[in-house]
Amino acid sequence: MRVLAVVPARGGSAGVPLKNLALVGGVPLVTRAVRACVRAELVDQVVVSTDHAQIAETAREAGALVVERPEELSGATASSESAVLHALDALGEDPEVVVLVQCTSAFIDPDDLSAAVRKVLDGEADSVVSGLPTHEFLWTATGGGVNHDPGVRPRRQDRDPEFRENGAFYVMRTAGLREHGHRFFGAIAVQPVPPQHAIEVDNPEDLELVRALAPFVDKPEPIDVDAVITDFDGVHTDDRAYVDSDGREMVLVSRSDGMGVSLLRRSGVKVLIMSTEHNPVVAARARKLGVPVLQGLADKRTVLRDWLRIEGLDPARVAYVGNDVNDLGPMGEVGWPVATPDAHPRVRAAARVVLTTAGGSGAVRELCDRVVAARPAVPVVEVKERPQLGPVAIGDLLVGDGEPVYVIGEIGINHNGDLDIARRLIDVAADAGCQAVKFQKRTPAICVPEEQKGQIRQTPWGEMTYLEYKERTEFGRDEYRQIAKYCDERGVHWFASPWDVPSIEFLEDMDVLTHKVASASVADHELLRALAATGKPIILSTGMSTLSEIDAAVEILGVDKLIMMHATSTYPLPPEEANLRTITTLKERYGVPVGYSGHERGLQISLAAVTLGAVCVERHITLDRTMWGSDHAASLEPSGLEHLVRDIRIIEQAMGDGVKRVFPGEEAPKARLRRVTV
Q: What does the DSSP assignment read for 444-483?
């Protein structure tokens, strides 16, 4: 080891309590000092000498060795040299050069540090001190000139610079330090540092100053986070609103922000918009970006804290972007507080990063690019061709490419616990030409969260707890025997989505033809293992699921008897969230038949899914969308279902086989109209 850097960092401080742990740009001062040493090309090892446990832990996390400083060397009168000599003794090894680095300098350039070390290694000096070049005139309190003759005022350009010691670092030959006991000996040189790096933190005012400078002095670096939360006004917009004659509000946003958010989501980073106001403009932009939004927030900090807990995120690995004082609360909750360049001065001072691009002009894109830069590169995986498995047999029907689309009328819980309504809905599905109806099967005592069981609900049957309501609307063996008999009479299949293992056992006893995995159950591996054990065909819905979550589900279920359903679990589904090309993605990735489970209003999206190759289509059905219950509003009424099945069959005929030919109906026009020339 030729060069050792020693950072004295005791716990006591007269000017600023626990100064060495004070955050500047979101980073403790001791961490900033250690990082500068680690990044210096000529420094071989970094040691922090401290008497404080938290400083020691922080130093280790930054990459330094820690030497515990004894009490007699930790007081206010102890010299920095004593800490360096003690660290050398503790290591039991004398390097050629030792560097004393002070945490009180927040902005140490690793290149300046290495340049100073080189002067000693090359023999230009025995001791080097960092200093700020200055042409200042100094005076005594009694009016005497210290570095000038008051009667002679030479011009700046006629004077050689002097250097003000700034206390950032001192480079010494170790043998000379041991011989003399202090940092200045032999040939002494100065390593110039720029003014923005020369501020030393001795009091609260200095700390406030370096915090304000940090966003501008620190070099941009990748932002390594797992989630990005943004304010809306002033971040996605330029903080102005345009109001037309009808009072409708419009805002200016940057198209580049949309691509940035898309890149974030592809890299696995969670994105959230938070807004104090409740504004349809915010909701519309969030839908366009495909990210969740929380609006009308009186206390952003509390809401953010709850959201982080629910999502299981480490606040230290989260960025929040704000521009005004109501963002100070949430900015204080995360490890990466970020401000726009035109933000309120207090917001800029609190920020670890100040963006260079204003809101509405690409601020969000700038942040997204820096976050994506910190993410590991997505490995290029060789895609092996999978045999196109399927079709899959469900009862007497085949479901797969080249087979008629398998249309499922999702009754779900729209029967409201009434067997007569269930029969009428089976009639609706059979009359429309569906091949199957589907229900949902739960064990309420298992599926209803504990905190919701006792909640009081107003229902068509009067006031009751939520658990009582779920039990009231759940069919038992007698009802399902009658359902099975009636479906057989009407010539349609029936099955259900089991939400718990006992429900699988229940449905197995009813001898269903297949099982459906609801989107909410994709990550319920206990449930999936129980379903795989049945050996029955499985229909897997993929709403609100990542590819990695689907991969894990497929690993359990296998692909031999698997049908996937592309779905987006938004009720009702806006067109921009349908993402129908995912049908092709799922087919290519897993090599299984893929259908579509829709929650949109209207028929267009479901019909488009068929043109993209959906082998089955599932839609919620109801007798009347105004009926009481959570799923009726996003369901098809009888006439809508009839039109859907009719149009699917027309599309099937129209799709053809892809072979270009002249059809019989074209022969007569061809003979009459075709002109041939040579």
A: HHHHS-HHHHT-EEEETTEEEEHHHHHHHT---HHHHHHH
Evaluate whether 412 touches 631 at the Cβ level (below 8 Å).
yes
Burial class, 23, CB count within 10 angstroms (exposed 0-12 / middle 13-18 / buried 19+): middle
- Give the whole-angstrom CA distance, residue 65 versus residue 62: 9
The pLDDT, as a whole number, for residue 383 is 41
215 versus 337: the higher-pLDDT residue is: 337
609-to-299, 405, 576, 591, 641 alpha-carbon distances in Å: 42, 11, 14, 18, 16
For the beta carbon of residue 399, count every other beta carbon within 10 angstroms: 23
**Residue 559 tokens, joined:** 């692909």
- Sole residue written with tokens 């030959």: 173
214, 229, 219, 225: which is closest to 350 by C-alpha? 214
Tokens of 433: 């030409």
Question: What is the model's pTM?
Answer: 0.47
- Cα distances from 611 to residues 401, 563, 573, 619, in angstroms, run 12, 18, 19, 17
**Tokens describing residue 39:** 């990044």
Question: What is the model's pLDDT at position 390?
Answer: 62
Strands of 406-412's sheet, edge to edge? 493-498, 436-441, 406-412, 616-620, 594-598, 562-567, 538-541, 515-517
Look at residues 353, 329, 345 and name the one whose alpha carbon lies nearest to residue 231.
Answer: 329
Cα(562)–Cα(541) distance, integer angstroms: 11
Residue entry with tokens 């390097």: 95
- Beta sheet of 318-322, edge-to-edge order: 293-294, 270-274, 227-230, 318-322, 336-339, 353-354
